[in-house]
Amino acid sequence: MTGGLNRRALLLGATAAVGAASLGGCDQLADTPWFSRALKAGDDANLFVQRLMLSKTTLAREYAEADISPWFKPNGTIDPVDAPYKALAANGFADFRLEVTGLVETPLRLSLDDLRGLPARTQITRHDCVEGWSCIGKWTGAPLSALLDRAGLKPEARYVVFRCADTMEEANDGSPVRYYESVDLVDAVHPQTILAYEMNGAPLSVQHGAPLRLRVERQLGYKMAKYVMVVEVVASLDGVGGGNGGYWEDNGYAWYAGI
Amino acid sequence: MASSETQDGLVQARAAEGRRWVFRHPAVIRAAHWINVVCLTVLLASGLQIFNAHPALYWGEVSTFDTPLVSMTATETDPPRGVTTLLGRTFDTTGVLGLSKDSAGEPAERGFPGWSTLPTEQNLAGGRRWHFLFAWIFLLNGLVYLAYGVATGQLGRRLIPSRDQLRHFGTTLREHLAFRFPKGEEATRYNALQKLTYLIVVLGLLPAQILAGLALSPGFNAAAPWILDLFGGRRSARTIHFVIANLLVLFVFVHVAMVLVSGVWNNLRGMVTGWFSIETGAESPRAQTGGEA
């Protein structure tokens, strides 16, 4: 039986070696253009199938007051270094104006009071971070659909881009790369998609994205841009950042974050 | 080549000296098996990568950051240590869990070590891409396998123990644990222990694993809120997803070990070409016991 054992040991060794080498080889494979494109096919399938499963008005689950997390983990930027933002914050955002621009009939400039004057929506929802943790919070804000209705979409409008105040990194030319995100019109006009100015009954704090934070409840946290300054309606994401529709998307994450 | 049907509907052919060949695995099942090998390997390694983005598990809908069920961290001490907590108990797991060497050989804070994850470096976005693509392939492969298995009757024949097999379950268990494998006619089918194990894995663990994965999708949660209740919340679902992954790893270890001890080349040939060789003439101990009944 020694022959059998040797063969066994050989086979085990070979399997282990092939296993280790193939995991390493996977890294190289993922760097090739064709396989990198193939890997994105999974994201495409996620979007396609989830759009079939979700109606335009299917709501994310809403929770009770008692479910609100005692501590809601702040993540991403929690204190923007940008001077223009700091100036706005120092003044309690009294000088803040949200711009609604791009492919709209009537561009808007809205103060926080203007936004508070719109019919508000309050929702207690679960925030799911792509990293793998969740917190429940209560959000109050203006439905994005109300803003888009008021501005009026042009026929070629397809996506809504959010341009934010917080610098994530410096571009090669030294200019700041500030956070940006986007949703398509399905999510833009979803009833739970709001620009929140209140969290848990109090004005939104700086660490959670004051003065305005996007809520897109059927997707992961990185879609929910904080420090939103500009809402820009576009026909294509090609001209937005690196062309993938968001800061994290340009760093490899899927544009559709429903999973 | 003359062929005939055995009791389990397997085609037998080509008698050799003291042995005979049975056609054990149809092409669809062989293909499904090897596609599964690739899928489960990629899903495990990319799953560990995803786990590493927040190497902690909780129960319920939300994270209770101070009281995780499981967590893997590195201490602030000099030198740092890798620490794993499991249900309130703390273990030093330096070098493997919590703290391990990165590709440059430097100690780095990681849940699972780089050699076990896909991609090797910390890369959540990359891990997710691998995970989702191979989850789709795994799902489609599984559906083809199930449809084929049901349509041809292979599924029931392979996974459901017959009444006589169940009657002799105790004997089978003892023989299996003693690594005494059946010969003759009895070797043409899986024994009750094998069938029940495959049944639990194929129709229990694997579907549950897919559901637990889907419960982690906020989009799927909106479409099917019942899935959150099924698992007791999204954070519970991630914990269950992790536990089932561990059970699948355990199954693979036992499965590969049994393949090795029960005739590795014969088993491998069977799953590659379909043809499996069994000893004729000698009655298996199980069949003898069966003869008394």
List keywords for this structure.
heterodimer, A: 259 residues, alpha+beta, Sulfite Oxidase, Chain A, domain 2, 2 domains, five-stranded mixed β-sheet, five-stranded antiparallel β-sheet, globular, B: 293 residues, Fumarate Reductase Cytochrome B subunit, four-stranded antiparallel β-sheet, 11 helices, 15% strand, disordered N terminus, Molybdopterin-binding protein (chain A), OxRdtase_Mopterin-bd_sf (chain A), OxRdtase_Mopterin-bd_dom (chain A), TAT_signal (chain A)
Explain what the structure shows.
The complex is a heterodimer of chains A (259) and B (293). Chain A is an alpha+beta fold. Chain A is built from 6 helices and 10 strands; from the N terminus they run H-H-H-E-E-H-E-E-H-E-E-H-E-E-E-E. In chain A, the strands form 2 sheets. A 5-stranded mixed sheet of chain A has the order 2-1-10-5-6. The longest helix of chain A has 30 residues, at 2-31. The termini of chain A are far apart. The mean pLDDT of chain A is 94. Chain B has 293 residues and is α+β, with helices and mostly antiparallel strands. Chain B has 2 domains: 3-55 and 118-292, Transmembrane di-heme cytochromes, Chain C (Fumarate Reductase Cytochrome B subunit); 65-111, no CATH class. Chain B is 53% helix and 15% strand. In chain B, the strands form 3 sheets. In chain B, strands 1-2-3-10 form a 4-stranded antiparallel sheet. Chain B has a 4-stranded antiparallel sheet with strand order 4-5-6-7. Chain B starts with a strand and ends with a helix. Chains A and B meet through helix 1, helix 2 and strand 4 of A and helix 1, helix 2, helix 7 and helix 9 of B. Chain A: Residues 94-234 form the Oxidoreductase molybdopterin-binding domain. Chain A: InterPro entries: OxRdtase_Mopterin-bd_dom, OxRdtase_Mopterin-bd_sf, TAT_signal.
